[in-house]
Design goal:
Elements (H helix, E strand, L loop, with lengths): L2 H13 L1 E6 L10 H9 L2 E5 L3 H4 L8 E5 L17 H16 L3 E6 L9 H11 L3 E4 L4 H8 L12 E5 L9 H16 L3 E5 L5 H10 L7 E6 L7 E6 L3 H7 L10 E4 L6 H4 L11 E4 L3 H13 L3 E4 L3 E4 L5 H11 L5 E4 L2 H13 L11 E4 L2 H10 L13 H7 L12 E7 L5 H8 L3 E12 L5 H9 L4 E4 L2 H11 L7 E4 L2 H9 L6 E2 L5 H21 L20
Parallel strand pairs: 1-4, 1-5, 2-3, 2-4, 6-7, 11-12, 11-18, 14-15, 14-16, 16-17, 18-19, 19-20
Antiparallel strand pairs: 7-10, 8-9, 8-10, 13-17
Helix pairs in contact: 4-5, 7-8, 11-20, 13-14, 15-16, 18-19
Length: 564
């Protein structure tokens, strides 16, 4: 065997292993650094279907995903709880074992912390018995992380008595011994004064409350029930133990899921002061962002920091120019020294030039000796990803006007070449060209790409737009207004309309929309901040009036919005 073959074989052998990885309470951002790195490295990902949408995007595109049924606890013939049902456990292990034998690195993703109320013990034992190498990467436990997201400390000060109980996951009441043990433990915990954290009780809230009351817990004991913990759909309902079932019904929380977390004890009262997550200014708001994923990345991330759920809907599609010769001549001129400056007004322009470079076998080195300007930070980021560090980014307003404010006038004593290459969209305005000419520059205004109206979004998205399913929409240009209305219809009267500037606001009004939020400066980041401030003011007004805090979509009106 050659040394290269031996080395390759050794590498495959070292890679063939299983990592049992904790997914945390739900939000993928709560993965540990180690867990995130392993997900990105995995050849095979084994997980329950409920985790797929949130965690598969953290993996390589080539990852092989194996979905397995949820883990359930079951009773053996002699009445003892075995842990995981045998048949499903065998199926999971066979999938893992076969992948490892094929030299693959397998990540077995487990909800919460792998070592707490999950199948880790049984599955790791199977690996150990079969000689399959494995490791365990802990994650945030749902039982402790979710109360923190609800603003509930589990101990009052450095000393506390906390008891954690997980209900057995059984398919029916036939597993009497499993539930008998659970009820016994619940009764013992109810008789004590410790803080209780209960998971897995699902829709048995009324039954559990009755048992705790029967065991001696006062009816006034505070209870908090949190569903969808750590997600932007999180909701926490609080009430006294003797009325918690009625409160749930009044709050329209029916059939809580198995992963719902219940906290019983005086620590729940601290939520009134310490709630931080569900009080974010846009918490739970569905915000429509009429931009492509590439354009909306930073904006969507900013909205998430305010608690919103951004939904990106492209309103334009980018296509090559009808006649590519002009672009080809400009790129050749860039290489041969025809230009002193190249000014980029969008990330799409950067992409168009980069693709043309690749057609000619060029890279970022072709910009050597040429000054590069970017209209804003998003465009500058696209340039840096290309390997080009821009010489000029507006210090103030990130727009054509802001770029002109900082762009130097042509000076024959310092500028050997008086020409600027300006790759742009076919629908770009003349503001920048006129301003550069006024500064003494000659401009090659080149159509680098065309913008066309995008295809309509799926029917359910169109219905949500017209029916009030979105709480707000961010318009970052007049074209996004026209195109969104054209492909999906006009947003519902209850939807908050936020516009990046006066021109965009005027277009919105011309389409019969009332503008609720106007960014003080034309910047997507400032627009998102302005919407957050609007949400914060709205929340504070509701609290001051003693009214429930609701999202705009929860207060739909049949009255049509009229432009002011």
């Amino acid at each position: 065997m050659s040394s290269d073959a031996a080395s390759s074989q050794a590498g495959a052998a070292s890679r063939a292993r299983v990592s049992f990885v904790g997914a945390g309470p739900g939000d993928p951002d709560l993965l540990t650094v180690r867990a995130a790195a392993l997900l990105a490295e995995a050849d095979v990902l084994v997980l329950e279907s409920g985790l797929r949408d949130r965690f598969v995007p953290r993996c390589r595109t080539a990852v092989h995903v194996i979905e397995v049924p949820p883990t359930r606890l079951c009773a053996s013939p002699d009445g003892d709880v075995e842990g995981v049902e045998t048949f499903a456990s065998v199926l999971r292990f066979e999938a893992i074992s076969d992948a490892v034998k094929a030299g693959k690195f397998v990540v077995r993703l487990l909800d919460g912390d792998p070592g707490l109320f999950g199948p880790l013990e049984a599955e790791a034992a199977q690996c150990a018995k079969a000689g399959v190498p494995f490791e365990v990467v802990p994650g945030l436990a749902r039982a402790t992380a979710v109360p923190a997201f609800a603003g509930i400390p589990l101990t009052a000060g450095p000393i506390g008595d906390v008891r954690l109980l997980a209900a057995p996951r059984v398919d029916s009441n036939a597993d009497f011994n499993a539930w008998s043990n659970w009820h016994r433990q619940l009764g013992e915990a109810g008789a004590a004064s410790s803080t209780l954290v209960l998971i897995g009780i699902g829709d048995r809230v009324e039954e559990v409350a009755a048992e705790l009351l029967a065991a001696g817990r006062p009816g006034t004991t505070p209870v908090a029930i949190t569903v969808d913990g750590s997600l932007t759909s999180q909701r926490t309902v609080t009430g006294p133990l003797d009325r918690i079932a009625a409160v749930l019904k009044a709050e329209r929380v029916s059939n809580p899921a198995a992963d719902t977390v219940v906290v019983v004890g005086s620590v729940v009262d601290r939520r009134a002061e310490l709630s931080w997550y569900e009080t974010k200014p846009l918490f739970g708001w569905r915000v429509l962002v009429p931009r492509t994923k590439e354009q909306a990345g930073a904006l969507s991330e900013q909205l998430r920091s305010y608690g919103a759920v951004p939904h990106e809907v492209p309103t334009i599609a980018v296509e090559p120019p009808r006649t590519p010769q002009q672009m080809e001549r400009a790129v050749k001129g860039l290489v041969t020294g025809r230009y002193e400056w190249v000014a980029f007004t969008s990330a799409n322009a950067v992409k168009a030039v980069r693709e043309k470079f690749e057609d000619y076998g060029l890279d970022a080195r072709a910009f050597a000796g040429i000054k590069v300007a970017a209209v804003g930070e998003q465009t500058a980021t696209a340039l840096r990803a290309f390997g080009v560090v821009p010489d000029l980014v507006p210090s103030g307003e990130q727009s054509a006007v802001g770029l002109l404010d900082d762009f130097p006038a042509y000076d024959p004593a310092f500028d050997p070449i008086e020409r600027v290459f300006l790759p742009r969209a076919d629908i770009a305005t003349e503001t920048l060209v006129a301003g550069l000419v006024e500064l003494g520059w000659e401009v090659d205004d080149v159509t680098a790409y065309r913008t066309v109206r995008a295809a309509p979004p799926p029917a359910e998205v169109r219905e949500a737009i017209k029916g009030g399913g979105f709480d707000a929409v961010l318009f970052t240009s007049s074209s996004t207004v026209r195109n969104l209305v054209g492909i999906a219809g006009k947003p519902h009267a209850t939807t908050v309309i936020a516009c990046i500037g006066p021109a965009t606001a005027k277009t919105a009004q011309e389409h019969g929309l009332r503008v609720d939020v106007l960014a003080p400066t034309p910047s997507a980041a400032v627009l998102a901040e302005a919407l957050a401030e609007f949400g914060r003011d709205r929340r504070e007004a509701a609290l001051a009036a003693g009214e429930p805090v609701t999202r705009p979509s929860e207060r739909r009106s049949s009255r049509a919005r009229r432009a002011k």
